[in-house]
Amino acid sequence: MSGGFTYSHLVYLVQSIGWTLVLSALAFVLGGIGGFAVMLARISPRRWLARAALVFIEAIQGIPLLILLFIVYFGLSVYGYQVPALVAAGMALMVYSSAYLGDIWRGCIEAMPKPQWEAAECLSLSRWQSLRLVIIPQAMRLALPPTVGFLVQLIKMTSLASVIGFIELTRAGQIINNSIFQPFLIFGLVGVFYFLLCYPLSRWSQSMENKLNVSNR
Fold first, then answer.
1. Which segments cross the bilayer (predicted)?
2. pLDDT tens for residues 10-46?
């Protein structure tokens, strides 16, 4: 008969939180870089580039993240590339994040009042200078709440990496449960840890959104 939940099991769960944060940070940073490129392409005056970015966004948003994980992890192995679970999960989440962040940021850029663009043109600024010096600094204020909100979702979505064997918080819970079979206790603790990770960010996002609404009034 298997033993009960011990202190070593708790330590194992806590340590796995670190890998959840590593994967979340990897996906968010790389996805942010990709998302910025997608945003620039989406608002480009070159119609072919804007349409290509739109196709990319709609394609990625229309595919479940789980399928992306399978494509990267198992698909690449078919061609002889043995990708570590962390790399595969990071790549899939990066692509997924870049589509969503690019779309979020594109909406914030396009929400800027037209007079801001006209004022930049009056100063003889190029389009890139207008974006960098005038539009983007103001759009960042609008983009911060939804960006933090997406980060909260991203942290929770890292749990899907468990299906390809990456040992983050959810996978660690599965491993422990397979040995002692106490699902209510173990996955209850896993849920508590996710809550502790996500709740402060959710409150921060809501606070920024409330401040933004008040200032707009």
1. 17-41, 53-75, 81-102, 142-167, 179-201
2. 999 999 999 999 999 999 999 999 999 999 999 999 9
**Res 214: pLDDT:** 47
Residues 89, 92, 97, 98: is their CA dihedral positive or negative?
positive
Token pair recorded at residue 131: 């974006």
Q: Does the pLDDT at position 95 exceed 90?
A: yes
CATH 1.10.3720.10 fits 7-216, yes or no: yes
H or E element: which one contains 89? helix 85-110
| Separation between Cα atoms, residue 58 and residue 106, nearest integer Å | 14
With cut-offs at 50, 70 and 90, classify the pLDDT of residue 1: very low
Domain positions in the chain: 7-216
**Nearest Cα to 69, choosing from 167, 160, 172?**
160
Encoded tokens for 203: 């409150």
* Contacts of residue 13, Cβ cutoff 8 Å, sequence gap at least 6: 169, 172, 173, 176, 186, 189, 190, 193
One-letter identity of residue 76: L
Q: What is the value of pTM for the model shown? A: 0.89
Burial of 156 (0-12, 13-18, 19+ CB in 10 A): middle
Do the beta carbons of residue 94 and residue 31 sit within 8 Å?
yes
3: Cα separation from own chain's centroid: 38
